[in-house]
């Protein structure tokens, strides 16, 4: 169910936000799941809602998959290069109606490479201090220059966004 929040400015609460990532590993035989922490962000809900704007920053250095060696490799220059590019950004996000559902269209920048993404909004639920939202998208890692290990892992991965936004 999608409830439209009242117009106003909201901030993402990093303590109550999570981005899940899921992809294939070992020639597509097994799945690897991980999480990114959200560093911050802002949502301005407008009237009409299609004029709303979403921005967010994700801590690229905080990616965890539950395996220390893999996490270290993902932070290396061959993948996220977290030391030089500590943030993944989402900018120019706008809600777009798509029949009975809503999409969130925006620009993601990873390691200095920007590309458009479109997330399907699964739920928005109002709360006393703001709202929570859940959305998902599939991203082609090659489009963001993450091409190392082409034979070892899948090209696409799924991102699941669970965020809480509180009124400023």
TrEMBL record:
UniProt-listed Pfam families: YceI
Location of the Lipid/polyisoprenoid-binding YceI-like domain: 9-166
UniProt xrefs under InterPro entries: Lipid/polyisoprenoid-bd_YceI, TTHA0802/YceI-like_sf
Domain of life: Bacteria
Family: Belongs to the UPF0312 family.
UniProt-recorded name of the protein: YceI family protein
Source taxonomy: Bacteria, Bacillati, Actinomycetota, Actinomycetes, Pseudonocardiales
């Amino acid at each position: 169910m999608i409830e439209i929040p009242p117009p106003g400015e909201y901030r993402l609460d990093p303590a109550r936000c999570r981005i899940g990532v899921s992809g294939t590993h070992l020639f597509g035989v097994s799945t690897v799941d991980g999480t990114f922490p959200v560093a911050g962000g802002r949502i301005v809900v407008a009237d009409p809602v299609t004029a709303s704007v979403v921005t967010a920053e994700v801590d690229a250095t905080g990616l965890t998959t539950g395996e220390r060696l893999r996490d270290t490799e993902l932070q290396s220059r061959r993948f996220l290069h977290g030391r030089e590019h500590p943030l993944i950004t989402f900018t120019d996000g706008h809600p777009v109606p798509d029949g009975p559902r809503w999409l969130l269209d925006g620009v993601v920048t990873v390691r200095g490479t920007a590309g458009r993404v479109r997330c399907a909004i699964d739920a928005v639920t109002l709360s006393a201090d703001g709202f929570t939202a859940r959305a998902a998208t599939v991203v082609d890692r090659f489009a963001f220059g993450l091409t190392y290990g082409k034979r070892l892992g899948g090209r696409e991965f799924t991102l699941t966004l669970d965020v809480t936004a509180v009124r400023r």
